[in-house]
Amino acid sequence: MPNIDDNTLLISLQAVYQNIKRYESLLDSETLSDPENIEELLVSYDEALKTLKGAYQDALKRGANLPPIESVLFAG
Predict the structure, then answer these.
(1) Do residues 16 and 44 make contact, with C-beta atoms less than 8 angstroms apart?
(2) CA atoms of 37 and 9, how far apart (whole Å)
(3) Distance between CA atoms of 75 and 73, rounded to whole angstroms?
(4) Predicted TM-score (pTM) of this structure
């Protein structure tokens, strides 16, 4: 896996998490004509989030100057 700087990792993690929340809200609204497409997107985003969380935890273990993952994902 290519090296990405800590700031890019932080921003990517936040962006993916926010998109998951947005798509989940969209699914909950029940106004979609094609929820299957959103569900497929959510599966992809969930996989990306899992990968990014692992990379973030690895960065924290190596001493990166990053906030705890809980504050990144659950703030706001």
Answers:
(1) no
(2) 27
(3) 6
(4) 0.85
Q: At what angle do helices 35-61 and 6-29 cross, to 10 degrees?
A: 150
pLDDT at residue number 29: 81
Q: Where are the domains of the chain?
A: 6-73
Q: Which of 46, 52, 51 is closest to 20 using CA atoms?
A: 46
pLDDT at 43: 95
pLDDT surpassing 70 at residue 75 = no
Structure tokens at 35: 């929820």
Residue in the structure block whose two tokens are 């990405």: 4
For residues 25 and 31, give the distance between their C-alpha atoms in angstroms, rounded to a whole number. Answer: 11
Task: Give the CATH fold of the 6-73 domain.
Answer: Helix Hairpins (1.10.287)
